[in-house]
Give the backbone structure.
Amino acid sequence: MQPTYLQELFKNQSYNPDNFFLIAGPCVVESEELVMEVADKVSAICKNLEIPYIFKASYRKANRTSANSFTGLGDDIALNFIKKVGEKYKLPTITDVHAHDECTLAAQYVDALQIPAFLCRQTDLLIAAAKTNKIVNVKKGQFLSGQSMQFAVDKITKAGNNKTMLTERGTTFGYQDLVVDYRNITWMKEHKTPVIMDCTHSLQQPNQTSGITGGNPQLIETIAKAAIAVGADGLFIETHPNPAVAKSDGANMLPLHLLENLLEQLIKIRKAII
């Protein structure tokens, strides 16, 4: 059973309540055409499969490896494009925030705020996000256990907001790789909050000497299937029509044309375990 705040978030969608929910979209707002294309295709797929869907795109990318990497089109421009997606397709939307003074601005355009994994311990950021009264999705730091994410939930709750979600996105393994410990999904569910598996960022190969993050997108299906099997409530999948030309995280995004088949397989697994 979804918490009340998720039921309210998905009120404009017809979906099977036994299905997992999906957060999906391009890594960053590259253009109006891109976000509209992705939203159009993913929303149609999710409607057909009765999967509740949240559109995701970052309006700004603050955590880039190289100073030369794309960071965004401009805050107001990108946030307006995300808002247009929500209005046109009647979808809830989510975007990342990186500093406490971004929260009030971003909250005017989206339905939920996302805290990047590197920033999950930033108290002022968590409190500022909480005070917008939006749903706050906190990604588990690559350096933390699922149990320790209770402190992030506590900071948000004590600020007067009980609308939280937690996302597993892998654990640092050496300098340039991540591994997924699926125990974290179970541990984070003990915090009485929906738990999401980030199927794309958990396959990153960060800190490459080239200044461009690598990845293993061929394993997205494996990560997603295992996450559903162990009880994840939702999946986070970044997707792009042509990841090879994406301006951020192209090395670990799912090609858009592969999404429908993957979701069909995942629904079968979900049916088998409930």
The chain is about 35% helix and 20% strand.
